[in-house]
Please model this.
Amino acid sequence: MTDQQPDTEHHASQHTDEPKPNGMDWSAVDQTAEAAPSEDRPDEETQTDEEVVADIVKVFEDGGADLDALSAAIVFALEQGLTEVYVSPVAAALSKAGARHLGYAKAELVRRITRELRDTYGTQAEAPEPEIDHEAREVEAAEASKALRADPNLLETGVDLVHRMGVVGETSAIKAVLLASASRLTMKPVSLLLQGESSGGKSTVLLETIKLTPPECLKILTTFSPKSLIYDREFNYAHSMIVLLEAAPLAAKKESEQAHMLRTLLSEGKIIHQTVVSDEEGRPHLETIEKEGPTSLLTCNVLDHLDIELMTRLITVGIDGGPEQTRKVLSAAALRAAGEEEVDFDPELKVWHGLFRWMAYQPTRVVIPFAVDLQRLITIAHTRTRRDFNQLVSMITASALLHQSQREVDAEGRIIAEMADYAHAREALGPGIDQSSDRKPPTDIARLISMVMETIAAEEEPKAQGGKKFAARPGVRRTMDISIRALANRLHATKSSVHRWVKTASDEGFLINHNEGSRRPLRLEILAEPQGSSSSDVLPSPEAVVVAMKEKKHTRGGRDSVWDGTAGQTGTNEQSQ
Model:
């Protein structure tokens, strides 16, 4: 992997010149534009904006209102030394007059005249952007983040900041977003789906946590059109993150071109779009537009399924919707309402921005000495485990990059990941990988299944009869009859939420509702019990990996990784940068 260029400077994407309206002689425009004097625009005190535009239209109409007159009007506009702000009103006025006199479609004239004005003169009139002194910027970022880079509990420090900013709990989700932000600097960034009930705080967790990421690396959207990613000339998607606050456009119930575009960008690291345009004589020809990545996606959704192909490219991070978490959220809101002192977090956020900007100038090659032992211990649930393992590797790499000031490097200059990096990645991704591997349902659905199982078990307790106990008869279905309202009351949830949980649990094969589609109460039967405990089932514990390494005496990178049971500290010495 080669060192990445700083991702903090975004440049406009290249574009192909648009064809001109049929029959129009643009040669005079091109020749005159080259010789057009760079004069200042007319004095605002002697001529208003409307008068400037009117004069340009008058040149067209006085010249005969034909194609030659339109060319002359554009040349006249270029000679006025107009800035970019005049391009749109001039194009609109000329297009309106041209459509009336020439018979061309107004929208077509607007598009082509705008492009001609902007490409021929408008961009030249703008002041050139000052060159960035990357060496000075790196030094500035290093100085701003010096103390944070030396913090052995750096990730926990980030979680604490997000908590103080108003997010209650959700430690694993916060860590996952922070690691995903660091992973964008690699060639295989991690993409996340924060999933939970409506009003569960998914967007809040995401929006507050990404404040620690430099804003120039984020493309925050609420919705987008299918081809907007292709024609976006202002944002550089390479080593950046698309933050889609609502994943509804990516729903599986309809063929989504947005989902297709994102799938391609996430998996292939680029979009290559081919379309057909017409040349000056109206003949069609191909035009290819490339949008370079790699790019990661962070999005939120309720428990309804998204596009199934896109889901295989995302790691699911569950948001806690339980009553205990709700009580904590209410308590935090009450404290704010009671006049809790507001805190300015900008100074701390700037430190984190400095850290990520400094990381953009550093090598991104990481070696994971325990990777072979780790993969041998991973439970293979199905084929997507291949992709999940690559996501896990990217998260371990991201943790090593975040903590690189405290990591050693090998003879090739690669950062050596430690077992603490795996512990961070496992905490952030473990539950999501378990869920995607069909071994664990989301938290809310797990509560539903657990409650149904406990109720059925209580009803099947052997009853004393004549001093003897009789167990439930074999072969008898273990079912539970209950109304949606009663079930919602037991789970401290809304009826709509419980209805959705039952449907999802049924779709995932955990239970079945024998009265589905009828007006009768639910008759629920458990088909499969969720496996495992609160820890990850698919991913082994860090201690298990260490044991495997000792048993096989397998080391890479010249040393064994030291693990002392804490995620934030290791037995290595701090490396000064």
